[in-house]
Amino acid sequence: MIRNVEVLVVGGGPAGLCAAQAAASMGAKVTMLERDYVPGGQLVKQTHKFFGSEKQHAGERGFQIGRMLLDEIQADPNIEILPETTALGCYEDGVITALQGDKHLKFRPERTILATGAAEKFLAFPGNDLPGVYGAGAVQTLMNVAGVKPAQRVLMVGSGNIGLIVSYQLKQAGVEVAGVVEAAPRIGGYLVHAAKIRRAGIPILTGWTVKEAFGKEQVEGAVICQLDDKFQQIPGTEKTIACDAICLAVGLTPLTELCWQAGCEMKYIRELSGHVPVVSDDLETTKAGIYAAGDVTGIEEASSAMVEGKIAGYSAAASLGHSPEEAARLRQEAMEELRQLRSGPTGGKINAGIEKVKQDGGVVHVNLYRYSH
Amino acid sequence: MLISTGIPTEEDLQGVMPPAQRRKLGPVAMAECFQKIPCNPCVAACRQKAITMGNDINECPKIDFDLCTGCGVCLTKCPGLAIFIIDETYGADTALVKLPFEYLPLPQAGQYAMGLNRAGEELGWFKVVQVIKGSARNLTHTICLEVPKELSMEVRNIREGGYRDE
Amino acid sequence: MRIEEHPVLQFDRGEKVTFFYNGQEVEAYSNETIAAALHAAGVRRLGHSPELHRPRGLFCAIGNCSSCFMTVNGEPNVRICVTRVEPGMRVEEQQGKGVVTP
């Protein structure tokens, strides 16, 4: 049986939560698919206080924001949350299928908001498949959701915000951090995060990378080495680090499978960290009625994902005739919030990426998934 | 270089340090925030309206040291844990440094903690004069540390645990 | 190892339960995943790669990769990072590629 729904939100992370809330607040009936036991996405794992302004709940910790948003949408009679439900496919006739336990569900939504988030990137080096080589998200999940220490002494790879924050969180959890290696000559994340771990005694080695991981059954150590200005390893600079885990925080890439399947026009945009759907200012993709919000449109901070969620939610609701004037006004406000968040140097890369999305050319029309099976 | 090490240089610090004249008058805040990022809770937190950043949320905060009373509210609100309160009038030879702290265990007032500089290097054992616990929602605690006056611009952290009673 | 005290978080672990890992009884909590419970018990090697037989552990912990496949109650290829522990559950290291029997 195919269920008709008004607005289907795929993903219950920061973008999906805000999209659901925004659409429902305008009077739309929303159904949210969440693969985890409870929505919240990566917000539930963030123990640090968020940046931004009051509108994005700056100063509150990520997990507190997640809980607050969740409480609000759980209390909203216009929102139906389907946890432990993984979207499987997006078909040409607009039908979206999902798996809930052993049940196969089918939905025909009037509007769809894809807020599927991102996946972590990997790094090639000998020994990278050993137990003890984790994605930073896995370390956060073990440590901040389950309350389990992932290891005793960790080498962090990558100094973006995630690498810096997870190093801090490891120390808060009582795990030693041997150091942070960063291939680039500059620290990638916010310098306040860097200063915070630096003054706690965690070295940050810019111009260094992990050369190999060693160990028999699991990670027993790592060899790091220096890189030249062309990112080539400099022989003779190798150092051995004793550690029982290597945490990879080397970036994220948008999770766009459903966009591809839906047949959305896609573009590869380096600044946005991968293939992203081409979207309008309303965050509608080139497939009418399908919107995209959050990291799926390009990797950015959670605060921006929340605002994008609002924009997509208000736009979808307005297009269905729900309080169109009020929705347009609130969408405009959200767009101004987003403009401010992106107006500084850290937003420069994002803006450059978004410009490239808007330019002609570079569109990938091929529905890759249709041919790859 | 701050951008490659995470440690602010003397030059970086000069730009945000309250002048010596002002420090002689009582407690004052110092925001070690050197990078344009979209963030402004410190502005909203200040009751004296001493912290401003113009119209752009990406600007670095500017503290009007004449308006600042060193109350320390901004210290607990800064998401980057980058604001410190310095009181060089605390003792004849000592200053009080208030720093944000989010590790366990917490020291108790009267105990001694290993003071660390911005590189995490040891500076010596200093007396914890007071621990101001953050609320259940805020959870950033304030450690008030008595340090030799000449280290008021050096001490920026304490090592968690291993506290001494004397 | 479990985190006993955390400066920011409180963990809602649920009730104490036990399950079986390769026939051995392991203590766990009802709100945690099999992967978390095994980690807490010090088990990080979860299996071996089917062809080269290299040791395999947890990588993503959110069900994206397939590094943590184990056999649970006889069913192979279970992503233990997103599957909660249940009392009496039988979790076994998988040999080779799991064969799903209909």
What is the arithmetic mean of pLDDT of chain B? 97
Number of domains of chain B: 2
Which CATH architecture of the largest domain in chain B is right?
2-Layer Sandwich
**What is the approximate shape of chain C?**
globular
Largest sheet of chain B: 7 strands, antiparallel
Anisotropy-based shape of chain B: globular
Helix content of chain B: 10-25%
Uncertain segments of chain C are none
Helix content of chain C: under 10%
Q: What topology, given as strand order, has the largest sheet of chain C? A: 2-1-7-5-6
Total count of domains of chain C: 1
Mean pLDDT of chain C: 95
Determine the CATH topology of chain C: Ubiquitin-like (UB roll)
Distance between termini of chain C?
38 Å
Counted by DSSP, the helix tally of chain B is 5
Which H/E pattern describes the elements of chain C? Answer: EEHEEEEE
Proportion of residues in β-strands of chain B: 25-35%
Reconstruct the topology from this structure.
The complex is a heterotrimer of chains A (373), B (166) and C (102).
Chain A lengths: L1 E9 L3 H12 L4 E4 L28 H13 L4 E4 L2 E6 L5 E5 L2 E12 L3 E3 L12 E3 H11 L6 E5 L3 H12 L3 E7 L8 H8 L5 E3 L1 E7 L6 E6 L12 E4 L2 E4 L3 E3 L2 H6 L3 E4 L4 E4 L12 E3 L9 H18 L4 H18 L3 H14 L4 E2 L3 H5 L1
Parallel strand pairs in A: 1-2, 1-6, 2-3, 6-19, 8-15, 9-10, 9-15, 10-11
Antiparallel strand pairs in A: 4-5, 5-6, 7-16, 12-13, 13-14, 17-18, 17-20
Helix pairs in contact in A: 1-2, 1-7, 3-4, 4-5, 7-8
Chain B lengths: L1 H4 L4 H5 L5 H4 L4 E4 L9 H5 L5 E2 L9 E2 L9 H5 L5 E5 L6 E8 L10 E5 L5 E11 L8 E8 L8 E2 L8
Antiparallel strand pairs in B: 1-4, 2-3, 4-5, 5-8, 6-7, 6-9, 7-8
Chain C lengths: L15 E6 L2 E6 L4 H7 L6 E2 L6 E2 L12 E4 L2 E5 L10 E3 L10
Parallel strand pairs in C: 1-7
Antiparallel strand pairs in C: 1-2, 3-4, 5-6, 5-7
Architecture overview:
The complex is a heterotrimer of chains A (373), B (166) and C (102). Chain A has 373 residues and is α/β, with parallel strands linked by helices. Chain A has 2 domains: 2-119 and 252-372, FAD/NAD(P)-binding domain; 122-248, FAD/NAD(P)-binding domain, CATH 3.50.50.60. Chain A contains 10 helices and 20 strands. In chain A, the strands form 5 sheets. In chain A, strands 1, 2, 3, 4, 5, 6 and 19 form a 7-stranded mixed beta sheet that branches. In chain A, strands 8-15-9-10-11 form a 5-stranded parallel beta sheet. Chain A has a 3-stranded antiparallel beta sheet with strand order 12-13-14, with no helix packed on it. In chain A, helix 1 (14-25) runs parallel beside helix 2 (62-74). The longest helix of chain B is centred in the N-terminal third of the chain and has 5 residues, at 10-14. Chain B is globular, with a radius of gyration of 15 Å. By secondary structure, chain C is mainly beta. Chain C is 7% helix and 27% strand. Chain C has a 5-stranded mixed beta sheet with strand order 2-1-7-5-6, covered by helices on one side. Chain C has a two-stranded antiparallel sheet with strand order 3-4. In chain C, strand 3 and strand 4 form a beta hairpin. Chain C is globular and about 45 Å long.
